[in-house]
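Structure, all five chains, one model.
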Amino acid sequence: MLTGIVFWVLAVIAVATGVAVFRVDSMARATYALAASFIAVGLVLLLVDLEFLGVITVLMMTMEMAVMGIYMIMFMGMNPALMPMDMVHGKRPALAVAIGTFVVLAAGALLIPWPTRRGAPAADLVTSLGEAVMESKMLVMMTVSPVLFATIVAALVLALPKGRYDRLGDDLRGTDMRAGKAPR
Amino acid sequence: MTGLLWACATVPAVVGAGLCVTGRRADRVAPALGIVTAGVVLVLSIAVALGRPVTSAPFLPGAVFGLAVDALAAVVLPAVAAVTLLVLLFAAADIAGARARFTGLTLLFAAAVVVTVCATTLPTLLFAWEVMGATSYALIGFRWQERHRVGAGLTAFLTTRTADLGLYLAAGAALAGGSGLALTDLPELPAPWRDVAAAGLLVAALGKAAQLPFTAWLSAAMQGPSPVSALLHSAAMVAMGGYLLLRVAPLLGATSWAGPTAAWVGALTALLLGAVALAQRDLKQLLAASTAAQLGFVVLGAGVAAVAGGTAHLVAHAATKALLFLAAGAWLTALGTKQLPALRGAARRWPLVGVCAGVGALALAGVAPLSLWATKDAVLAGAHEESLALYLVGLAAAALSAGYAGKVLWLVWQRLPADADAGYDTEEEGTREVRVLQQAPLVVLAVGAAVLGLLALPPVADTLRRALGSGSTPTPGLVELAVSALVAVVVLLVVRIRPLQPLPGWLEGWLGLARATDVVVVRPVLRTAEALARFDDRVLARAVTGAGRGALRTARAAARFDDGVLDRAVADSATAGVRLAGATGRADLAGPDAAVRSLAAGTRWLGGWARRTQTGQLHQYYVSAAVVLAAALALLLAVR
Amino acid sequence: MTLQTMLLVAAALFSVGLYGAISQQVVVMVMMGLELMLNGVILAAAAFWWFLSPTPDGQVLLLVVITAMTVEMAMGFAVATLLHRSRQSDMTDMATDLSR
Amino acid sequence: MEQSPLMLLPELCLLGGAVVTLLAGSFLPRQRQWVARLIAVAALLAAAVSAALAFPSHQDGHFGGGGDMETVFGAFVLDTATGVTRLVVVAAVLLVIGLGVDELAGTARESETYTLLLLGGLGAIVLAATDDLLVLAVGFLLASIPVYALVGMVRTPGAAEAALKTYLLGALSGILLLLGATVLSGIAGGTAYVDLAAGLAVAPAAAVAVGALAVLAGLLFEAGGVPLHQWVPDATQGAGTAAAAFLTTVPKIGALVAAARLVDVLPGPLPWPLLVGLLAAATMTLANLAALAQTDARRLLGWSTVSQVGYLLMPVAVVSSTSAAVPALLVYLAGYAVTNLTAFAVLAAVPGARSLADFRGLARQRPGLAAALVISLLSLVGTPPTAVFLGKLTVFTAAWDGGLAWLVVVAAVNTVVSLFYYLRWLVEAFRPGEPAPTADWARGAALAGALGVLAVGLGAGLVTALVGDGTLG
Amino acid sequence: MLSSIIFLPLVAAALLAVPRVPDRVARWTWIAVTAAEVVLVGVLIARYETPADGGLAFEERARWIPSVNSSWHVGVDGLSVPLLALTAVVFCACAVYGLREDRRPRQHAALFLALQATCMGLFAAQDLIVFFVFFDLSIVGMYAAIAGWGHGRDAGRSALQFFLYTFLGSLALLLGFIGLYLAADPHTFDIPELIAAAPLQDHPVAGGFVLAALLLGLAVKTPTIPFHTWLPPAHTDASAIGSAVLAAVLLKMGTYGFVRIAMPAMPDAWRGAAWVVLGVGIASVLYGALVALAQTDAKRMIAYTSINHMGYVVLAVGAAGLLGGGTAARELAVTGAVTQMVSHGLITGALFLLAGVLHDRTGSYALRDYGGLARSAPVWSGLFAVGAFASLGIPAFSGFIAEFQVFAGSIGTTAWAAIALPGILITAALFLRALQLLVTGLPGGRSIGFTDVRAVEAVPVTGLLLLSLAIGVLPWLLLDLITPASAVLVDLVGR
């Protein structure tokens, strides 16, 4: 009973803040609203015994929203508090598609005769997760590592306007190009 | 002996082809070479007529290239060879330019005739038959510098080829009936196919023989040189039509209808073309019409199974008509005209020519005891046996032939008018001389025209009949012979006393047959051809374009629909409708001329539609992805 | 709290995110929409895990989803930076040179 | 189940090569980055050799191969499809590097480019080889993230825009893929395909439909098929030539094999063949029409790529109904890869040319290059005896055999339409015109590629023997 | 033997294409190779013995794509030997005529040598894939020939239209091939195996669709109406040699496909479709002739007569599918069809080369631009006249032999075939009309100063016409080759 009430409260918060992301009039507020939505979902995860993942979600999202705020201010020179927020186009088709999607998904959620639960959660969820990651699903984590590697390389390549040769000179000896000393 | 038969066909063919290919360089030797060759052919033909060889060579699957000399061929072959030789002799003096081509074509033609006469299978027959047609085209259009002469050749060739289709049909029928392609097997065909074969052969023969309704080409063919007319339109090509019917008379007899049909067509042609001949003012036209009429007797003979009489008439007519054509040719070369009024008294200028022509005319008139009198009566006896009406029509036709023969005879033997020269040189520049070489063949032919009637009189006639296997056919009685001789003489005298009033124009114009062919066949075909060509260019060739345009219209509609889903559906589809109509209208207005452009435009439009989905607007990509995926989901759940 | 209700909420989050992704012009806002969609996916994954098959696989899936979210966002920032530097714009609408 | 990482030696070579290339590049002067290139090429060659050695000795045309399929870590299948994918991807990356040398040599980010190429290739192989939804999701990331970077690498406004679109569509697709994976694993009770095959058969159809469709959508993005194809022409036009060559070739290989593996386990009652067939038809038709009026050679090739994906989806549609489908897919992929890269090599060999008209005079000036262009474009059309003809032949056969004869007709008609724009390019190349400077390495790559196109077409027996002997017979 | 015949020109083409040999060398190499081909084919014919019970002679088979049961399988029988010979002869004639080509002669020679290889390969192919490979390559080669050496203002567009149209046809053909392959058990692309198996014999619907695809593909290539519209522009804008090769050899690929693949492999379906084929044949005969009659352009006219002449072939093969008539009639029809292919190749090849002379001298094909050519160019006129008469089916030339057999056989099978008979007549009319306009009358228009044919033009034309004459006079030389094969074919269709 209590779980139900908590769930509903969190659910309303999650959705409401989610809607708020696109309703508030500044990008900073949108960021906060998104973070709130994520926290609410992370808390719901706690309700279904997924403490570890729930906490991870909350932490990751908080961090990410912080990054987003910093990003907007530092890189793009926006003042989050003053940024006007009416940058939308084609509201009506967007609304139509979103409502349509919701109707389809909700209808599926409610009407599909879901199967019954198979098995029970492991006693120690974190341990079982760790074992899965290290054994049966080891390849997932093995693949995640090149993904992260690729992400770092790719993000840096895209985000940095200057490569190492711009900074260190063509022979990487740190020659200051702007000083006019051409490398030999 | 078979070698001689082969030689009889191949020697003229090879020499002729050689002369044609060599062209002008051989002009000098051509006449002599031609005469020698024709002489050789004549000797050979007499030899094979006596030896009666039968031979064949591989040709098509299921049909050999078969040649044989039977009694019928033995009679006709020497006659044709002889006329060829005489015509070449005459031409050596008559034809001035391009002699090699003339001689070569004539020899080729002669070879084709030899094969036609001796053919034992349908493919062989058709082979020679079509070569005759082609060489006749070339000979009629011999003076190619004048387009109307070539056109006349075209008419002749096309008309006869139309009829030739009957031979293809007959060949198909023979195969379908399973009898094989030999001519002698045709009567054994089962019922429907026998009729088809008979009909095909009948049509082919009527076409070549210039019988109704194919007569008109013969009039046009008079554009050719006179020696050509003498050979093709008396002794050989036209005669081959009659010959074919004589040869397949058993097949005609095997059906219930073919014989009578042939008989009636022959009789009516004899009658009507006799009248036409009577109305002519041009000597060669008169002779041409007469040819068709006289061949009518041959066809009549074949139709009533009077093969012996028909054969005799064929041969006798060959000599007579060749004689007359050559005489006409001699006058044409000398006087430059073939108009009858201008030829008044022409016979008196060159008496030998005149006498020979007179003999020919009298023979043609059927005056006893000249040849055509007896041969015609041999045919008419058969007709009498068949039906009285047929006989009477034939008799009337005989009277008409006496009429036009008399017309010519009296005219050319009238006193030479003082202003004779005024009428000359209407066709060409006359030479005012008739050479010896031109006159010699006339004498030979005149003798032939006089005595060949023996073929239809006892005792030769009986031999001939037995040889041809038609011993039971009726022979003309004395009464009949007398009646016809009397009719001929009476008509001759009538024409002498009361020259003819001008006859109706439709008679002089060959019954309007040429016009009718033009209106009924030629023009519609040409119109159809042009219409089809337009259709091909404007419709079929643009079907691809049209398909592109159609697809593009669909695409445009689809594009509108697509936009409509995204945004103002109703308004845009209305616009789409309007634009669609506009595009359609424009496309139609642009018409065929713009077709090529519209292909390009159609391609562009289609591509434009596809590229319109690539707006560069990311949110539209998202929406379209969502829409497509939703549709896919619906499909998945709906089609289960 | 049932599977249906959790999925309903997840669907709502997903749809709201989709609305944002479609309607927003600013790249970062579009990314927020995408994140919200992922939020919904996380919730749905948790629901399926709890109510249908509480196996370790489901947990790994959640982990992968969170990783993917992080990685995609990192790339998003990088791309947005690139766009900002090269075109002085952060609007998706402004970048429509490549079309048709 | 084996756990030996040595079974993944080709993948490890690629990963290691990527790391070492990047590290080496960090210490190399700008003009000596060819060392990094050499390292990358060495890594690729090593991967190729190890992949060839590890090529499965027994032929199994059909996924699953009757239960004796070899897997590593329970999620990486070592069957013929994987073997062929490895070889083709490695060869493709090698060719990309070959054609890109002139463009990349001495640029500021040459070594990073090689790193990303290797990583992208690795991602494609993982995508193609896996039979687990989780690895599929991660592989998707690994295959797409390097592509974003490669597209944006040249830093022109167009490249930035292309990168943005690629990224945003990719992100959406990734989310869809994750959603699908969530739903499928939830209702099937596992993420491995064996679990799916068992679990989905008894699961509610609507849920299966939503889940599988979402996963498929993600893969369609990677492959460049309708409805998530829009990034392909943009990225092809905006990116550098080598990057464009890569992104139109390598990710598709992985995504299409992955799609085939997925469709293979989807349960029967839903009309998956029909759906995939319709998507294939829509993809090829749309792309061919859109390509008709293109004047930019790159964009034209971009659309051409999309249209080829349409043909490539045909065997995917029938993968569960005929044993001919997988060999057909592999043959087509191999043929398409070499052909497409040859066309891009020609582009790279004439660096100044953007529009089709820029290729005027090519035949006169560089007959060899023109011949390579002719061969590659005719191959894209599907003219024998080239590589794609062999692909089309097998693919058409498979699709017909699988009951989609209508799709074969649609594909045939589309092939005719495609002739329009390929020929337009050829005609330009044979017109007289100004000579343009050409690049040597790329020309070599083009000639090598053209020979490869002919070799695949003429050596058809060898190729088909590789992808599954006897399975079509 | 066969493979070397096929690959010799290909190798020569490659040798000419790659190194920059002098033009003169290229021209004479071309002639030498085509002459060698003629000799090789001659040797082949001399050593040819009709194989027992419908087998193949000079059979060669090598592994190619074993996984789809497709192999490099070549061989000849009475249906293909005549066409191989025709190909060799026509290409040799074109090589001689091509001595005068001064636009990129080296590439020109290489292209036509390659084209010859594809034609040789197609007529020798005993495997559907091999057949298709050559079929498609011939399209590519011909496209290049029209686009590269055509002389029309719209050569590019005509070439594109040709390519698109015939490519569409080839894809339809490919679909049909795939259908046959899938229907056979075990799956195979091997033609003799397919013929032996006759798949789809008991599947009327599937068989109908597969045959429809085959028919469409072959009908486009043949071409029959209504798929012929690519032909006139392609001919009008192609060079003389291109037209000659296109009409003389490439069109035969369509009809050859009927007798090689469609009829024997799908007898049941063929019999079902025979009436349709017959109808299309009749329509092509009449339509082609009528439209040709209305043309004012000599080359277009000859092009349309090709539709008419190929219509005879279609008519005959259609009739061969009707079991109503006797076997002899159907065999005659098939023999006639193959004869017609050879005959049309020789005669139309010659006519197109002659038409090329018109364009070479004055740049015009318009019939009305000429007149009296018999005076200014007597040799040309004579050759054209002979060609025209040969084409309209005058005896002593091959056309008569072919048409007589076609008609006698077809009418012997069904009387409906007689509807096509006027085709002969209209063809005669149109050729005589053309002859009248071009050759007769007094010289005028462009005829004045018209240079007569040169040796390099006259020799190939004369050669082709002499061959036609030889077949016309001694048809058994050719028919002895064809007849056993057509008997086998009729037997197979009658299964």
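The two ends of chain B are 87 Å apart (CA to CA).
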